Amino acid sequence: MGMAQSGPSKKIANSLVTASCAGVLAVYIAGYTRTQHAADRFAAQVAERRPVVHDPSMPPIPEPFHSREPVRPREIEHAKPLPVAVAPQAAEVVPDDQPAVTVAVPTPSPEPSPLPEPAPVAAEPKVEPPAPIPPPAPKWKDGTYTGWGYSRHGNIEASVVIESGRIASAIISQCRTRYSCSVIDRLPPQVAQRQSPDVDYVSGATQSADAFYGAVVAALDKAK
Amino acid sequence: MGTLITIQVVRACGEADEAISRAFGWFHAIEECCSRFDQRSELVRLTAQAGRPVPVSAILFEAVKFALLVAEESGGAFDPTVGRRMQARGFDKEHRTGERIRAVSGPDDGASYRDVLLDPDRRTIALRRPLTLDLGAVAKGLAVDTAARELEMFTDFAIDAGGDLYLGGSNEQGAGWSVGIRHPRRENELITSLRVSDQAVCTSGDYERRGHILDPRSAAPANAVASATVVASRAMLADALATAAFVLGPREGLRLLNRAGVEGLIVTPDLERYETRGLRHAA
Fold first, then answer.
1. Under an 8 A CB cutoff, do A23 and B13 touch?
2. Are B111 and B84 in contact (CB under 8 A)?
3. Chain-chain contact of B260 with A155 (C-beta, under 8 angstroms)
4. How close, in Å, is residue B261 to chain A by CA atoms?
5. Are residues A30 and B58, on separate chains, in Cβ contact within 8 Å?
6. d(CA A175, nearest CA chain B) in Å
7. What are the chain B neighbours of A27 within 8 Å (beta carbons)?
8. Is the ipTM of this complex over 0.90?
């Protein structure tokens, strides 16, 4: 809402709301390691079941996945935010009666593979996102915003800082995937470079990459 | 905090237990830092070291930083250094244990929030003179907010910490949560119900312990408001602004809420109601 009429008033509104969000985030991130040990134990258990890293000399392994929606290219997803509200418990009640679709190219899917990640493949980004053209229209409100992206391997929270209407930085503020988020380390800087959530696909970590993408979309959605 | 905390996760699954434990953990962690009634708390240790910068935890630093910001924006109507004046007026007892806090020596020499200096680079807090910090409003809100972040992935959940609420998503019926606001003069009655989703609701009322909110500017009890309710994205903000609006009185309080971009309802002792335009009442 913001009934603020004058410039200075508006500034006050922004400063209090933004400061409360940033303060909670700072405390949460600082204390996260303390409350994280149980989640880490869980991660260690499932990591043992992780398949061996795929040998790039082998032919690509098609990645089966289940989707509630037709597969769409990421550009289209970008026009409309991902259905990021798919919470873990909601995923359990999703009817699994859709025919499995087999594709050779890792494609973003809101419902990731139920199998341990089969490390799909080959050459790195299969589909390069469009050139880093900063979209002219999207003006984001300054502040720090967070959003969750979901995958069956766990969830990722991204924090995006908007300064002067542009993405100043993006980080993974919480990594609750079964696998370390270091596998997608190079994605967060791309968000600021490209002024867009359209980060690269990461072969072998498509689901983590998609979760990060979804998290950034959700965060930017709050900044509108 | 001497407060009963209730957490509800709609459609809880296996992961919920662990997340709820972590959420409760935040209440303990923040109370350990920010209680002015616990002699071992980080806050009490800080106030014993006036005159020099003291390195503090992220929790204490952020709580104080936010409290100072609200103090600045509210022109001192909200002031975390009101603690010593509250002790002077007899609010020196922990209501859960009845334990009295140690008397602070020396006169109240007019300390204000401007006597608290922060160094974000070194994460230190320096008190320019002996004073008592009261982070009650901010600390409880901060605990609710951090707990809410633990539960965010479940989308639909409710946290109630003694009337400081955070309502995530929808209730079991799939509708926004309906939050009853207590009638400040008629016990067991509601003055209204609000429709809330992904927001915090906090109320400062004079009915719990009459006169428990002081006007930091005059050190006298604030008495122009019977209850002030704020709906905001964070409980920390809602609680601090509810306290500030309570002190400022209905008109000026409403102006602050509008400027801050939050919604609210202020009820005077004569039961006059002042509310922001965007306040959503439940049908």
1. no
2. yes
3. no
4. 4
5. yes
6. 12
7. 58-59, 62-63, 142, 146
8. no
Q: What is the CATH number of domain B152-275?
A: 3.10.520.10
The domain spans of chain A are 36-223
Q: Do B69 and A13 touch (CB under 8 A)?
A: no
Domain map (residue ranges) of chain B: 47-136, 152-275
Q: What is the CA radius of gyration of chain A?
A: 19
Beta bridge partner(s), residue B117: B126
What's the pLDDT tens digit per position in B48-102? 999 999 999 999 999 999 999 999 999 999 999 976 566 555 555 544 444 554 4
Pick the CATH number of B47-136 from 1.10.290.10, 3.30.450.40, 1.10.3980.10, 3.40.190.10: 1.10.3980.10
Summarised one tens digit per residue, pLDDT across range B130-167 is 988 889 889 999 999 999 998 988 889 999 998 789 99
Distance to chain B for A12, nearest Cα, Å:
6
Q: How many alpha carbons lie under 13 Å from residue B6 in its C-beta half-sphere?
A: 8
Model-level pTM?
0.61
pLDDT tens column, B17-48: 888 888 998 998 898 899 888 888 999 999 99
Among chain A residues, the shortest Cα distance to B10 is held by A89
B200, β-bridge pairs: B166, B232
> Cα(B275)–Cα(B283) distance, rounded to whole angstroms?
17
Cβ–Cβ of A35/B152 closer than 8 Å?
no
Find chain A residues with C-beta within 8 A of B11's C-beta. Answer: 89-90
